[in-house]
Design goal:
The structure is a homotrimer of 182-residue chains.
Chain A lengths: L17 H15 L7 H10 L3 E2 L4 E2 L4 E2 L5 E3 L4 E2 L4 E3 L4 E3 L4 E2 L4 E3 L1 E3 L8 E3 L2 E3 L4 E2 L4 E2 L4 E2 L4 E2 L4 E2 L7 E4 L4 E5 L5
Parallel strand pairs in A: 1-4, 2-5, 3-6, 4-7, 5-8, 6-9, 7-12, 8-13, 9-14, 12-15, 13-16, 14-17, 16-18
Antiparallel strand pairs in A: 10-11, 18-19
């Protein structure tokens, strides 16, 4: 069989009212994706107004792209770096003391390539406390990054990352343990 | 020998009149690369005015960067995702029912690193029907992605992709067959 | 132990006065990161005003992101491609006849993931004469790319690159010698 994208049907997928999504589209473009307007209090206020949970001491750098804030939970003392792209078609849950470095990409959308209708599949991402997602690294749909795992620069996590473990490559492989000495 | 970029000479490369390229540069910046102006009919009209072939049911998301539309052919029911970069210094031919996911990169330019003058080399890309180029994946110059091949998230296709086959990594390696069951 | 980002202390890191950094932040956003304003003489003048060393015949394409120009040295006849990101928290020294292709990323910042305070670590990058950093490739903190080395498309250099050698993958591995025939 062959792919028929004209048979694609995502009418079951209801991520929020059209009005809410349009409002967020413009707010995201102006206040988040833009190089300017880097006021953290304003950004956190906007995220919360649109349903995000945002903890204490969160830092959000410029040029961040967030799909749907109402599917976003950010814990305390967590950093979202420059040019991070949170493409959260469904829930992205980020814990406390997490560093999402610049250019990182959290991807919640997938397609069923075994179906001619190429069905949309969305899966949540969970990033537990103390995790470090390295610069330009990608976390794929459905992945849980367990406590204090590290995904190195430019790597692609296609499966869960074990706690206190360091991963590298595409697909990311475990290369060593993470020991926090003090 | 050593590289001498002051000896670089691409005067043989004539991608279109200066006026046409300047006009497109601004239209691309305003209507395509921008986060706003996501009207699909307008974008398709502009692409066609500048010589692109664009089929029925094509969807073009925001923040798309297209080098030269007169070197671009897009078939029917094909999707161009957010932040896709079509750096088509020469022809990029995309078939029907193709999904180019968000952040993907189609690269047509290369350099001859065995010459001190670092000569420009451009090679076309062909993406056949039903292909899926995953998010943040890259297709290199001269590559043909045969019918219904899949390039997974963040992977780099340096050679042709076999039909109905799934590739991963940098350089991308075949990891399994793609079976479309229904 | 666990990560405590509220214990993070980078007060030792003094990259320049607040006023200078703010001025550059806006100039970078308007004249460099923007799709417009692609006048090379203006961009080189601005870089030099902010302390960069910029040689003869340097070409800087649109959408380039430079962190701190006073930590940037660019030799003669060197090209900085579209969407290049020079995240130079400390010195980035780029030689003569170097090609930094589109979308490449030079990363100088790291964190000590063995400390609960996740200390900032910055390390310089040196890119010697004749090097080619391929499109969407990444050079990690502290890496020296020796004379005429090549980092291929989308690859991640985590260690020094030998002279006249070609590297690929994440982490980048040496795949062959570079011979410049003429």
């Amino acid at each position: 069989m062959i792919t028929k994208l004209d048979k694609f049907d995502n009418s079951w997928y209801k991520p929020g009212s059209f009005l809410k999504r349009m409002c967020w589209f413009f707010i995201n473009s102006i206040f988040f994706k833009s190089s300017f307007f880097s006021s953290n209090p304003l950004k956190k206020l906007l995220l919360k107004l649109f349903g995000a949970k945002v903890g204490e001491g969160v830092v959000i750098k410029p040029n961040v792209n967030i799909k749907y804030p109402w599917f976003l939970h950010i814990g305390n003392h967590t950093w979202i770096g420059e040019n991070v792209w949170i493409d959260n078609l469904t829930t992205v849950q980020i814990g406390n003391h997490v560093c999402i470095s610049q250019g990182a990409f959290l991807l919640c959308g997938n397609h069923d390539y075994t179906k001619s209708s190429f069905d949309l599949m969305t899966k949540p991402i969970i990033i537990e406390d103390g995790v470090w997602i390295g610069a330009k690294a990608t976390v794929c749909p459905g992945v849980t990054c367990f406590s204090h795992s590290v995904l190195s620069v430019g790597s692609v996590a296609t499966k869960n990352l074990d706690a206190f473990s360091i991963y590298q490559g595409n697909p990311a492989q475990k290369i060593k343990e993470r020991v926090i000495a003090d």
